[in-house]
């Protein structure tokens, strides 16, 4: 297998990982120059070494944009460096979280209390309560009009239901925040990957241009040889 020696580490790498300094984006090239002042456009660098400086460039870009890298930005840079998917990272999600009994109960109560099933059942309960006291018990039952006991039950239910629903809303806000963080990481990685893709396309175009120039030089040399042979035959 053909190899080459990197101008940075002086180590041998496969020839298919070879990059020429002139084919590297200027921003990344300048980043390499800060660590290796003797690096030129004719110098060579391996793909793994180039990826290191790409990640370094992306980190500096994020520092300029957001001022300070948070855990989310560092996670995104790690996924790019390791060629991983964002979903493979350990982001806290609704499916994998270990909720307490109180949190699960609050979610269940809020889900049931905000449904038509609860409204219908509670409406039937009130209707039966009022009918049984007025019609069947001739308003002399356990809770005659104006239904003081019923009002007490409704007040207690509202007093207990309100904080439970608020707890569930807090849980929903946490879920929304987690989803927003994941969306932010995915969008950020997409932007950084696009910037890296531009650099790779630039390298590919420059490489193709160099190949075309080499082919043209060979063709010109062949034409010169043919012209020389024709001139010799004429003489």
Kindly estimate the percentage of residues that lie in beta strands according to DSSP.
5-15%
Mean pLDDT, as a whole number? Answer: 76
**Secondary structure: helix percent:** 55-70%
How are the strands of the largest sheet arranged? 1-2
Give your account of this protein's structure.
This protein has 235 residues and is mainly α. The chain folds into two domains: 1-69, no CATH class; 97-235. Helix content is 69%, strand content 5%. The protein is built from six helices and four strands. The chain has helices at 26-35, 47-66, 71-82, 101-113, 116-136, 148-234, and strands at 3-5, 12-14, 18-20, 44-46. The strands form two sheets. The chain has a two-stranded antiparallel sheet with strand order 1-2. Strands 3-4 form a two-stranded antiparallel sheet. A hairpin with a 6-residue loop joins strand 1 (3-5) and strand 2 (12-14). It is rod-shaped, with a radius of gyration of 36 Å. It starts with a strand and ends with a helix. 9% of the residues are buried. Residues 92-96 have low confidence and may be disordered. InterPro entries: DUF1003 (IPR010406). Keywords: Membrane, Transmembrane, Transmembrane helix.
């Amino acid at each position: 297998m053909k190899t080459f020696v990197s101008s940075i580490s002086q180590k041998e790498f496969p020839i298919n990982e070879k990059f020429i300094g002139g084919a590297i984006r200027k921003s990344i090239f300048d980043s390499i120059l800060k660590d290796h002042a003797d690096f030129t456009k004719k110098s060579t660098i391996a793909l793994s070494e180039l990826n290191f400086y790409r990640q370094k460039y992306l980190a500096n870009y994020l520092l300029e944009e957001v001022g300070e890298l948070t855990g989310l930005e560092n996670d995104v840079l790690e996924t790019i460096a390791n060629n991983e998917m964002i979903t493979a990272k350990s982001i806290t999600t609704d499916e994998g979280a270990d909720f307490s009994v109180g949190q699960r109960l609050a979610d269940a109560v809020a889900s049931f209390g905000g449904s038509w099933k609860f409204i219908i059942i509670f409406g039937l309960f009130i209707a039966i309560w009022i009918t049984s006291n007025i019609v069947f018990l001739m308003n002399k039952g356990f809770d005659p009009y104006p239904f003081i006991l019923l009002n007490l039950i409704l007040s207690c239910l509202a007093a207990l239901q309100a904080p439970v629903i608020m707890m569930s809303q807090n849980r929903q806000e946490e879920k929304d925040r987690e989803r927003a963080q994941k969306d932010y990481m995915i969008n950020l990685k997409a932007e950084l990957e696009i910037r890296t893709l531009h650099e790779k396309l630039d390298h590919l175009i420059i490489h193709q241009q160099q190949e075309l120039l080499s082919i043209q030089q060979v063709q010109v040399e062949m034409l010169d040889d043919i012209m020389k042979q024709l001139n010799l035959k004429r003489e």
